[in-house]
Inverse folding.
């Protein structure tokens, strides 16, 4: 492309594809086994580079967070009593007590693992999309939030706007990146790579309304099985935030999973902030005009 | 459950990748818009007494704006795509509003610069001043809203930040005008600029109090991330408030109009503005390392 074409290209607007059924993810954390197949599948399909081999010391999590090059991230939350130091045992002379399976099964669990495959939430009213000054972030025909990489100029405002800390600027090309919900695969009627790779059905993909129904049934099923405290995060809008296109079934408080307890749409306060700014501006104008029209001179 | 490897209280958001270029942008944009605003009002309301000094100020405003555009471009991840900002106009995005207003303002600032350089008559300059005044005021203030309508700890509860930016930009313009007038030996302009600066510093103090003042009260600091971000910077902010606002204010009140003191006042105000902008920009980063 020549220089003129480079300049004009972003201003061209192709015809929009017709709207399709809104799709999303339902992530059932009770089914996640922390295998990271979703992370690998996402990296592989989207040709994302490795983040290096770093030992974080944070359970089995060596990815740490979603980033410009990691669009799926499995969180590991270990909830166990403080570990006791293991004394060096003397040579055993007596035979150990026989193991009673029934007694072992009856023992209360010492703790639990929480695992969750985190991803872009594809918010119904996405702050990143609202903030984007270039129009690179759009809501596509599947109602997913999508970054047009040929348009993004890496201003970083979407990063500041996202209350979930999902979208990030990649150091490789300077553009913002995040999960596309495998837009290319969806257009060919294929399941997103992560959901396809998930061996337990923890990551479920489909029409978002259908997923919500399925998720509510799952809560009832878990309750019937005696798993108390399961709830859905982001399946419906709150007073301060829209519903999420990628929502979760959780067993503990959202903060434990690295999710905000009460996400807030940053633009909620914009009108009031502009009004207060106008007040400040008027005050400044008043001082200057007062000095010039008064008897200072 | 007594232990977890993952922290219980953590900053969920990512700090935006804004550093040195953006600090320079915040400073230069405020200074350019403030200088243009003061010069525009000088030439509109007192062309006879203050027209000459206003022309000098217009000559300063445009180069400052030009330097700012360089910073704005190089703070992007992909500077070659700067013009992509102009593909859409989104009233719901303060950055989009800012970019379009900057485009208008910098064009008018250039014309005013040219008119001042070539000594075009007052009515030409007054027309350009009238056209550029509103964009200049918006450019000086919009960054406050740009920050406050994000999800970032520290910024997201600063409801008066836009007002603080508006007053700070005007104060910076008045400070530069004071320095220019003082160096040019224009004593009428010095007197006016000192008076304006003094009152703008007082109002700025009130605005900073409104931005930071609810520290400790419920709401502003109820979230640990906000508390961490703001308290870590509180000492620096206290220093900024004392040095950046009180010191020049006292010098304005008690000095006898010596040119050296006036230049010192301007230098303190501008240094305070630069440092405070840096601390403001770094708030989310400070929260992130908590």
């Amino acid at each position: 492309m020549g220089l003129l074409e480079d300049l004009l290209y972003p201003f061209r607007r192709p015809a929009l594809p017709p709207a399709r059924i809104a799709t999303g993810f339902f992530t059932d954390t009770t089914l996640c086994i922390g295998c990271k197949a979703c992370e690998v599948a996402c990296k592989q399909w989207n040709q994302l580079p490795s983040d290096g081999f770093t030992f974080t010391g944070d359970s089995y999590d060596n990815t740490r967070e979603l980033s410009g090059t990691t669009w799926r991230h499995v969180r590991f939350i270990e909830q166990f009593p403080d570990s006791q130091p293991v004394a060096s045992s003397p040579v055993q002379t007596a035979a150990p007590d026989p193991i009673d399976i029934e007694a072992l099964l009856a023992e209360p669990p010492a703790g639990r693992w929480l695992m969750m495959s985190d991803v872009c939430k594809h918010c119904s009213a996405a702050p990143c999309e609202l903030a984007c000054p270039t129009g690179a972030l759009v809501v596509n025909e599947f109602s997913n939030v999508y970054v047009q990489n040929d348009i993004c100029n890496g201003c970083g405002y979407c990063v500041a706007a996202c209350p979930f800390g999902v979208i990030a600027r990649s150091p490789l090309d300077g553009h913002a990146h995040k999960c596309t919900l495998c837009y290319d695969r969806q257009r060919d009627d294929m399941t997103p790579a992560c959901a396809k790779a998930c061996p337990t059905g923890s990551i479920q993909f489909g029409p978002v309304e259908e997923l919500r129904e399925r998720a509510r049934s799952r809560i009832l099923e878990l309750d019937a099985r005696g798993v108390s405290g399961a709830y859905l995060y982001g399946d419906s809008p709150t007073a301060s935030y829209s519903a999420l296109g990628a929502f979760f079934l959780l067993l503990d408080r959202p903060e434990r999973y690295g999710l905000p307890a009460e996400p807030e749409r940053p633009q909620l306060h914009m009108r009031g902030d502009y009004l207060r700014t106008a007040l400040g501006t008027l005050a400044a104008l008043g001082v200057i005009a007062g000095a010039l029209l008064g008897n200072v001179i | 459950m007594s232990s977890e490897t993952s922290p219980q209280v953590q900053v969920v958001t990512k700090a935006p990748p804004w550093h040195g270029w953006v600090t320079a942008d915040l400073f230069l944009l405020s200074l350019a818009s403030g200088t243009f605003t003061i010069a525009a009002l000088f030439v509109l309301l007192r062309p006879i007494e203050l027209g000459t000094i206003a022309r000098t100020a217009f000559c300063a405003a445009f180069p400052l704006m030009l330097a700012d555009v360089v910073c704005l471009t190089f703070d992007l991840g992909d500077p070659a795509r700067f013009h992509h900002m102009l593909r859409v106009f989104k009233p719901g995005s303060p950055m989009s509003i800012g970019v379009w207003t900057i485009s208008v303002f910098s064009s008018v600032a250039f014309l005013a610069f040219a008119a001042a350089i070539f000594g075009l008559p007052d009515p030409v300059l007054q027309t350009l001043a009238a056209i550029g005044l509103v964009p200049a005021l918006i450019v000086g203030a919009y960054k406050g809203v740009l920050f406050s309508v994000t999800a970032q700890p520290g910024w997201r509860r600063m409801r008066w930040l836009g007002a603080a930016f508006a007053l700070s930009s005007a104060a910076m313009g008045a400070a530069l005008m004071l320095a220019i007038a003082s160096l040019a030996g224009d004593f009428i302009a010095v007197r006016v600029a000192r008076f304006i600066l003094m009152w703008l510093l007082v109002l700025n103090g009130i605005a900073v109090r409104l931005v930071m003042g609810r520290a400790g009260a419920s709401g502003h600091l109820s979230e640990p991330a906000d508390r961490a971000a703001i308290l870590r910077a509180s000492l620096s902010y206290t220093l900024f408030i004392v040095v950046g606002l009180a010191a020049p204010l006292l010098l304005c009140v008690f000095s006898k109009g010596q040119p050296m003191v006036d230049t010192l006042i301007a230098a303190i105000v501008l240094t305070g503005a630069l440092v405070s902008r840096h601390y403001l920009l770094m708030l989310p980063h400070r929260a992130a390392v908590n």
Residues 40 and 237 of chain A are 31 Å apart (CA to CA). Chain A has two domains: 17-80+110-264, 265-297. Chain A touches chain B through 79 residues (CB under 8 Å). Residues 270-293 of chain A form the longest helix (24 residues).
